[in-house]
Amino acid sequence: MKNAIHAACAALVILCGLSASFAAGASTGSGDRPVVSGLEIVQSGTFAPLPPETSPGGARYRLVRSGETVEAAPGVAFGVAFAVKGEPAGQAVVVEARLSPPEAEGGTATGTDGAPEPGRRWFIPAVVGGTGQAVASFAYAWEAVPGPWRLTLAEGGRVLAEKVFSVDEGSAAPSWTALPVPSVPPVAPVSPFPDSGGPPNGISSEPVAGTAAAENPAEPLIQQQPPAASLPAAPESPVDPVNARNGQGPVPAKTEKPATKAPSASDQAPTSKAAELAADAKPPAKAAPKPASKPDEAAGTGKGTTFLLQAGLFSVKGNAFSEAARYRAKGYPACVLEEGNGAKRRYRVIVGRFPDNERAVTARRAFLAREGGEVVVKELPAAEVSGRLFCR
Known about the structure:
- By secondary structure, the protein is α+β, with helices and mostly antiparallel strands.
- The chain is 21% helix and 28% strand.
């Protein structure tokens, strides 16, 4: 009996030890995972992109106007900046952002044409104790449906923050949408009468708008004769001594016709298409046609490669085409390059193609100075790019 009691007590002690070890292991395992207690919105309104070299803490946008009213126009970026609450600090988390358009009377979001309007969904990397940004923009004018747009932030399937923006057609445009007009120094007017300091009486010195003749007056076709007072006096007729002895008057002087100056080619202007054709009777020599460049040389460096300026990489096709359309609205030749198959399919947003790396790097600097964000140069075979590039 005593042996049975001792055996039961030993088994109970062993079970208690195993339970404590399991609880400690579970506690240790759960401590490695971050616990997000909330997402706090610290800024909301319209944003503008930041150059990467001036981005504090990896932020890609700066707030230009606070508020929940957004202009219904393409290119306008709006959203929120948020802070991640939880523990332990510094642990990486992924925040899911979802932007839902206005709902119609039936409860379905629709566009301006009445068709169902899908919402947008993207993921934002962040850390516990840090901040992040959830910013979206309209690529087309028809996407900016007036009404309430709901932006939600979720982590682990839980919606922890939301903000409703009112898209309004009559709201004032933010100041950053208009580029400043460069100042040009005024050009000093050039007087067409440098010798006299001004025009003769009765002639206006104001140029005639839209005519090149006012800025570069042509020489008159008929040269004006000087006034009679300025002409030299004609010499007296010589007296013939023979006629003088016979009582006759002086011999009249022979009048010579003034030599007329043949008008030069610069003094005459053709008055008709026939005169122009006559002046150009001699046909110009035809230049030897240059051989057509090979397809590889036109697309790349002559070795079958091309250099692409990549401004984004997406796994969702619609998001890539929306981003490309947004850049096309700004004047960039944006396209989408499709790569991979199945679950590994990706969509690259291309904002420029160049035949060599030097031009691509120069264009990248100019793009970063104007748009900011993240852009890289990709070298790919030209044959592979031509068949998978969509530029609509």
